[in-house]
């Protein structure tokens, strides 16, 4: 609890058996998390079994692999059903440090923001943490394009470390979003669409063998998906098109 608000950490998981327990231990050591929700997207390893052994953890397993975006949809639905008022997503691969949870939760719990991102770019942590140069260049290009098209000023749109208020999650039309990786980008575009301010904190990150990462082919698909989302946002703002991603808020 923070300010009498229930804090739930959600973990969209796929083959995270090697790093799940370490991530969980550090999450719970922060002393403010009430519940962990782990959604296993039909892993091939012992992710679900390990998760079921962890205290204060609710586990749900997709019967078949549905994709990263579909995994998050289940995560957020479950968090809202459990009464979460501050919901923080962190990957169970230990790429992002859970030590920022109190800071991110405080920014939401004190009513300053409804969305807080852990940015790998602020402070120059991306390359220091081992992000491949080609991914860094793609990140910078897509972020610049996103900022221009959305009229925002984020340091990056592609972090998997995010905190949300209950109010915000209930307003987002998440069911309209992709079940694939571009879900992340669509979600942020929707937050900007609804005129919420997105805060960022500098986040150290680590790239290593067990850390999740998408291959080049899927990265290219994701990149084009981000560009498509930004274009739809701009055209919808200009009232040239209508989109389920960006419903009329009037």
The averaged pLDDT comes out at 94
Order of helices and strands: EHEHEHEHEHHEHHEH
Q: Please name the CATH architecture.
A: Alpha-Beta Complex
Distance between the termini: 35 Å
Q: What would the CATH topology be? A: Spore Coat Polysaccharide Biosynthesis Protein SpsA, Chain A
What Rg is obtained from the alpha carbons, in whole angstroms? 17 Å
**Total separate domains:** 1
The biggest beta sheet is recorded as:
7 strands, mixed
Structural class estimated from helices and strands: alpha/beta
Counted beta strands: 7
Q: Order of strands across the widest beta sheet?
A: 3-2-1-4-6-5-7
Helix content: 25-40%
Number of contiguous helices: 9
Spell out the CATH superfamily: Spore Coat Polysaccharide Biosynthesis Protein SpsA, Chain A
Which spans have pLDDT < 50 for at least 5 consecutive residues?
Answer: none
Strand content: 5-15%
Q: At the first level of CATH, what is the class?
A: Alpha Beta
Outline, from the CA principal axes? globular
């Amino acid at each position: 609890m923070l300010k009498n608000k229930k804090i739930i950490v959600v973990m969209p998981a796929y083959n995270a058996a090697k790093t799940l327990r370490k991530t969980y231990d550090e999450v719970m050591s922060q002393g403010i998390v009430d519940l962990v929700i782990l959604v296993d997207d039909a892993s091939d390893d012992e992710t679900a079994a390990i998760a079921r052994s962890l205290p204060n953890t609710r586990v749900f397993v997709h019967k078949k692999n549905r994709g990263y975006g579909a995994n998050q949809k289940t995560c957020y639905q479950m968090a809202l059903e459990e009464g979460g008022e501050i919901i923080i997503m962190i990957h169970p691969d230990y790429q992002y440090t859970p030590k920022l949870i109190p800071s991110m939760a405080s920014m939401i719990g004190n009513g300053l923001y409804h969305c807080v991102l852990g940015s790998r770019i602020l402070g120059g942590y991306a390359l220091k943490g081992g992000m491949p140069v080609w991914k860094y260049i793609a990140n910078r290009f897509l972020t610049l394009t996103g900022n221009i098209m959305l009229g925002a000023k984020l340091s990056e749109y592609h972090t998997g470390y995010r905190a949300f208020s209950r109010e915000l999650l209930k307003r987002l039309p998440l069911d309209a979003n992709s079940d694939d990786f571009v879900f992340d980008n669509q979600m942020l575009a929707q937050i900007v669409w609804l005129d919420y301010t997105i805060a960022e904190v500098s986040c150290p990150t680590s790239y290593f063998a067990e850390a999740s990462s998408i291959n080049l082919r899927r990265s290219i698909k994701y990149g084009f998906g981000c560009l498509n989302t930004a274009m739809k946002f701009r055209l919808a703002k200009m009232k040239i098109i209508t989109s389920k991603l960006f419903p009329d808020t009037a």
